[in-house]
Amino acid sequence: MNGTAQAEILSPGAYASLQDAGRRGWRHIGVPWAGALDARLMRIANVLVGNAENTPVIECFDGGLHLAACDGPLHVAVAGHAALEVDRGAERRAAAPWRSLTLAPGDSLRIRRMEAGRIAVVAIAGLTVPRMLGSAATYTRAQLGGMDGRALAAGTRLQAAAAPGHAERVLPAAPAPETGPCTLRAVPGPQDDHFTPEALHTFFSAEYRVSPQADRMGVRLDGPALAHRGAPEIVSDATVPGSVQVPGNGLPIVLLADAQTAGGYPKIATVIGADLPRLAQCRPGDGLRFTAVSAETGEAAARERETETRRLLAAIRRLAGGLDEAALYDANLAGNAVDALNPEHTP
Amino acid sequence: MNVRVLDAGDAALTIEFGDAIDPRLLASVNALDAAISRMHAEGGLPGLIETMPTFRSLTVFFDPLATSRAALRNALEPLLAAAETVAPPAARHWRLPVCYEGEAAPDLAETARAIGRSADEVVALHSGTEYLVYMLGFLPGFPFMGDLPAALRLPRRGEPRVRVPAGSVAIATGLTAIYPWESPGGWHLLGRCPVPLFDAGRGAPALLAAGDRVRFEPVGTAEYRRLTAAIAAREIAPQHWLAADGAHETRP
């Protein structure tokens, strides 16, 4: 069947926006990439519903997202360490992330809370979002992407494909939550020579804490102030996702996908791409440290992360038709339930 | 010129020509950017994603899964020396209307006081100079332009504004700019320009490009309103604001 359906946002939760792999090629006119902060989650969620890996998804912070299927059934999947529930009429059941499920018209899916991290990604089969400058990624400061350049709000309706005919899929061994001490690898520079040796030592040894100012633009950190050698400003040059800017107050700010493309603060280091999703998942109050690595180590880490992502994508399995209705809603036993189903997977 | 290649993480490197605001540095940045574009178009830079030119440096973004910093650096090396000596390309010249009156100019009186001149003198100084677009950044389409006449140079405001209206024409230090979007901002607001600087529906979304030249043309409040309405009705195309060849050299 090739029918269409809609997903209606009943509540966006703390913050939710449509994102894809981001907008490339426009930084020279001041347009940042935007795009999913944790692209692995986007790719997993999309493959779970049978979409191409970089199809637009809903990226939501801190839970609370609530959406309903309208005008047809929806095939959806959540990637991230989220506790979910599905309402069908008066019935409310827990549901599991890392697998797809079908919402009948009128059903709704809610991200009740995050069990680890703060970002979850929701993929919807056949989700269609207009592209602007080559991408559907929402960048609200310039009203680009998403629905009319805005974050999702209650009442927003998204166009998708009607679900019948879709097979449910599952990621049998979901990635474990990254708990424990968070150490981010960072390449010194490009302006490490604007800091005192003590400041560099402090940056790469002290513990910092994620402040409440943490969003898609960047993460402000609390902790020991870093002393500049000379003025705390430079003639503006380019920033990159991961740039660690240090303004006059000495407290670092790590830039993320929506950050401005240039800045006038010295940048002591750059967090490597492989570790940015971990940073984006940090909640205000979480502690973290930085460790210095070479650019070559960062490149190797990027390749390792990609290999691991591909391994996870390749592990996604189809569930045998019709037998998983109960398992679908089996929230906390997802791993066990799936293992039990393993021998019955159809190729 | 002392060219340095700096690490900007595992997926970008920054080629720095200097650390000043200087048209000669900009010429080198733009020459290198053009040379990289040509090499990329010929397939010579696999894994290149894009470049970001600024006042004094060019940052090259690459995909570490498709190339490496070392490979890219080797490929770029021959382009670096050539970029240092190149003459700037022919510039486009723009004449943009600015309303320096009333609520469009919230910091005009204050700026005049701060530099010990009259408001009219501030307008004459600001609109009497042709500026170079050094780079676009901060916001999509936001042009950093210079250099301001020495008499107009002021530090940024002590208290940045939470909300600067779109179209605001502003100054700080040696630079002037137009805010394409409403945003927070710490510059002094001298006027308002009705011409949209960014339109994602255009093939070239940003009106201005690094290397362009811009002169401001004072217009009254009534003319500003008329232009705003005409632009909204799409009666005036962006090219309207391009000065004809040589026209920038003669002033009425």
CATH topology of the largest domain in chain B: Cyclophilin
Return Rg of chain B in Å: 20 Å
Helix content range of the residues of chain A, please?
Answer: 10-25%
Number of alpha- plus pi-helical segments of chain A: 6
CATH class descriptor name of the largest domain in chain B: Mainly Beta
Structural class of chain A: alpha+beta
Total number of beta strands of chain A:
22
How far from one another are the termini of chain B? 40 Å
Give the total of beta strands of chain B. Answer: 13
CATH architecture annotation of the largest domain in chain B: Beta Barrel
Instruction: Tell me, briefly, the overall form of chain B.
Output: globular
Q: What is the string of helix and strand elements of chain B?
A: EEHEEHEHHEEEEEEEEH
Protein name (chain B): 5-oxoprolinase subunit PxpB
Enzyme class (chain B): hydrolase
Pfam families (chain B): CT_C_D
Domain Carboxyltransferase (chain B): 3-208
Task: Indicate the topology.
The complex is a heterodimer of chains A (347) and B (252).
Chain A: E1 4-12, E2 15-19, H1 39-48, E3 57-61, E4 65-70, E5 74-79, E6 82-88, E7 91-95, E8 100-103, E9 108-114, E10 119-124, E11 157-161, E12 169-170, E13 182-188, H2 197-203, E14 208-214, E15 218-222, E16 237-238, E17 243-245, E18 253-255, E19 262-263, E20 267-271, H3 276-281, E21 287-292, H4 295-315, E22 317-318, H5 325-328, H6 334-341
Parallel strand pairs in A: 13-21
Antiparallel strand pairs in A: 1-4, 1-11, 2-3, 3-10, 4-9, 5-8, 5-10, 6-7, 6-9, 12-22, 13-20, 14-15, 14-21, 15-18, 16-19, 17-18, 17-20
Chain B: E1 4-7, E2 12-16, H1 23-41, E3 48-53, E4 57-62, H2 69-83, E5 93-99, H3 108-115, H4 119-127, E6 131-136, E7 143-146, E8 161-164, E9 168-172, E10 175-178, E11 183-185, E12 188-192, E13 213-219, H5 221-232
Parallel strand pairs in B: 5-13
Antiparallel strand pairs in B: 1-2, 2-4, 3-4, 6-7, 6-13, 8-11, 9-10, 9-12
Helix pairs in contact in B: 1-2, 3-4
